[in-house]
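2.7 Reproducibility. Because tokenized structures are sensitive to small changes in the input, we list the exact sequence used for AEC family transporter, including any N-terminal residues retained from the expression construct. No trimming or masking was applied before prediction.
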Amino acid sequence: MIEILLALAPVFLLIAGGNLIRRNGLLPADFWAGAEKLVYWGLFPCLLFRKAALAPLDALEPGPLVITLVGGIAVAGIVVLALKPWLRLSDPSLGSVFQAAIRMNVYIGFAAASALGGPHGQALAALCAAIMVPAVNAFSIVVLLGLHGGAKGKEARPRGPKLWLDVLRGVVTHQLILAIVLGLGVNIAGIGIPPVVDGLTEILSSGALPLALLTVGAGLQLRALRSIGRAMVTGIIAKLVVQPLAAYGIAASLGLSGDALLVALIFAALPCSPSGYHMARQMGGDGPLIAGLITAQTFLAAILLPVVILLVR
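Resulting structure tokens (single pass, no recycling of outputs):
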């Protein structure tokens, strides 16, 4: 247990440091928006491209991993939707709880997998991101449009082929997915990363995780924790308990083991990402509720993630 805590401590200390820096005004307020964009659009895609291009693909088992991760997401989401009568929430609020139950913070997952699994853990983390990002976006868009149809509930709900075309477009143009697909293409083709690109992506990748974790901390909203009710408790349990337990049950039935099982459960037990807040705002969701869920889940993940890892090891 001590070994796990020591490995994960730098991850959560960086998150806490980012929050302290923002709250104390040590950097200009507009720094964080620019840093977040730099990580999201530049540094982290470079990291994913590099790890996918260099990953030992022969050692990876994509089939069981896909079923485990997508199955865990689906179970957590279904639990939230099934509790709608008990939660007694408006559709926008229910949509926010749903998002908090299925979305994951890839930055924390990648950092944790790197700390515990080394290069092989990084390769598995890239594969997990490639599986979960499109699955989560597809589930989110379909459910949110079904609940309150479009931004702020004013746009007509796309139906049939139009809906799925919008989902597909959002997935195939996602910069993280494009980076992983491009890296896997280079890997499968056996052409290697060109020397100049290799050096450039190595430099950019080295700054991705530290800055990403600092921005995660800066985005936490402690004031959003003042109102804790059944909606927040449901979102926390669905994400940090139901999803990893469901993923573990599926993985056990499929015989998934070793580092693949470890990294899969790390990703299943991650807190919701800040992107959930932005999507909730864009599609008419409850922004303050999901902001509170993201903050609470991130703090609790510092305690529950080591427990999940300990159960696997």
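Residues 57 and 187 are 8 Å apart (CA to CA).
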